[in-house]
Amino acid sequence: MDFSTLASLSIPLASLRMQALEAGPSDGPLVLLLHGFPELSESWREVLPLLGAAGYHAVAPDLRGYGGTDRPRKGYDLDTLADDVYQLARHLQPGRPVHLVGHDWGGGIAYHMAAMHPDLVATLTVVNCPHPSVLARRIWRPAQLKRSWYMFYFQLPWLPERALSAEGGRRVPALMRRGMAKGAQVSDARLAPYARNLAHPDAARAAVDYYREALRGLFTPGGARRLLRTYPRIRAPFLLVWGEEDTALGRELTVGLEPYFEQPPEVRYLAGVGHFPPLEAPERVASEILEHLERQPSAAPRAKAGRGKDSCPTQAS
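Now predict its structure.
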C-alpha cells in the first residue's frame, strides 16, 4: 500500500485548529473519517489510500483534544464535537453534502451529525458504534453493563487520565489489544502513536472528558428524553460495519435499528475482527465503505476497487 499518497493538513476553523490526514483528489467527493478512543487520524492510515485511489477525497481529522488538533479545556459534549465536524465539512467542501464515516466515538459523532444536520450528510457509515438511542436503552442490561464498566470508571476525577498517561502511556497499547480479536495482526509500532499521544496528561484528560460529558448529558434534564423519544430519525443511507469479536459492545446493539432511520439500515458483520476494524482489517473496512458509496445514486463514477469476500451481510432486524 502506498502511504506516500497521504498528506497532512492543518485546518483553521472558527472553533479550533484541526490536524488531519488526507488522500485522493481534492475535487473528489469528500469522505470524512472520524476516529474513536483512544485513537487518532492514524487509525485510518491504511483505509485512506484505498478511498483516494477510488476517486474520493478522503480526510481523517484528529478530533478535538487528540493529536495535533487543539485541546481546549471545554467542549467535549456531543453537540460541540459534532459542530467541529460540521465546520470541517463546510470548510473542505462548501455547498455539497459529504460522506461520513465514524468508528467508536467517531461513530457517535457521525450519528449526531446525520441526525442534526441531515442536509450535510450524503451517506453514513459507522464502524463498531451503536446508535446513541440504542446504547441509551440497552446499556443497562447486565451483559452490556459489565462490558461498559470503563465508561463508569471514566467518571472518576483525575484518576483515569493519570492512569492512561502514566509511564509514557504504556497501558494504552495493552488496553487496545484487549479490544482486538485474538491473533489480530497489529504491530507494537502501529500502536505506539496512541501511547505517545495519551502520555500527555492534557490529552488523556481530553479523551476521558468525552465519556464524562456523555453521561452528564444523559442525566441532565431532557437529555435522556431526547435520546429515547425525540432524537431525529436519520435520513442518510446507513451502513453499520461490525467486528463480531468486539469485547466492549455486544452484538445485540446491532439489531432493532429500523425506528431510528428513514431508510432500511444495513449491517455487515466482520468475522474474526474485534473492536478496532480500521486497525485490524483496514482493507475489509475500505471495501465495505466503497460498496456502500457505490450503491448510492449520488456516488461519482470511479474506478472499481477490490472487494473483500469474508464479511457476512445481514439486514438489521
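The longest strand covers residues 17-23.
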